[in-house]
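Memo to structure team: turn this sequence into structure tokens by end of day. - J.P.
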Amino acid sequence: MITVYSEEHRLRNARTELHGGQLVPPHECPERAQYVLDRVSAVGLGEIVAPTRYGLEPVLRVHDRGFVEFLEHAAAEWAAAGNRGEAIPDCWPARRMAQRRPNSIAGKLGYYAMAGETSITPGTWEAARAAADAALTGAERLQGGARAAFALCRPPGHHAARDLYGGYCFLNNAAIAAQSLRDRGAARVAILDVDFHHGNGTQDIFYERDDVLFVSLHGEPAEAFPYFSGYADETGAGAGTGFNLNLPLPRATGFDAWRAALAGGLKRIRSFAPEALVVSLGVDTFAGDPISFFRLQSADFASYGGMIAACRVPTLFVLEGGYAVAEVGVNVVNVLTGFEQA
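Reply from structure team:
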């Protein structure tokens, strides 16, 4: 299996995250990608390649142009306004307030942010662009006949909606790849999100469409970030009704219950008969993850990689979360080797 990786991810090296009432070093850090890359090399998973540059056109197929322009210039605007720390929003257009984009960078941060933990720093835009290119490169390999590919994306993407960032995400790598597969001729594409946190951004992008099926296993949103998305009764709207399947699970869910939910999600994917499958591969379902509450063990990741392979669909794995940093490489690559060996 090919791995697509860019050193430009290191340009996203934030120092600030709002967590537990404190400003702490971010859980989403450059070391995550390095551990995964090291493990890919150690097991001999396959060739490691740099992404192709695709420009902004594929990004703008799923993201609002004004939002993309904001991301590109936010760090510079923040510094030009005289701010010395990293860019973090402190005001949002909450219920019954005007939903208008302000001119001030402080206001624009709140307008485009879905959460306040994620700072924007110099290098964030460049890293996000490179991550999207990695996903697009993996999608192109599938279109060329590959059985599978792995986009080692950092920063992650599944919380990024059409015009919102947050949850460590800026551009939705999985959604950009799925749309690219559609644009290149795939009549139907499925997205399977196995990250602990609901992929609210991916759901937002495809919620009213019947050509892209979204299936997500995640922590019960009444108890877990992003809190306001991921309930079982969110099934799609308009033409997309019935093409959004959320499978929320409670605290302390172990592999038996998680595997049963995955089996249900994969059954729905098979009935959809996609021509390609994009997997938002977050491994923060691991028992040792510091910001999650499932109980999967490292061996379980290899097991469910084999379950995904049984769908017999060309599959692009796109890296999302996983914050037990020392174990992230083993857990991610276990999924990929489980898939390869099935």
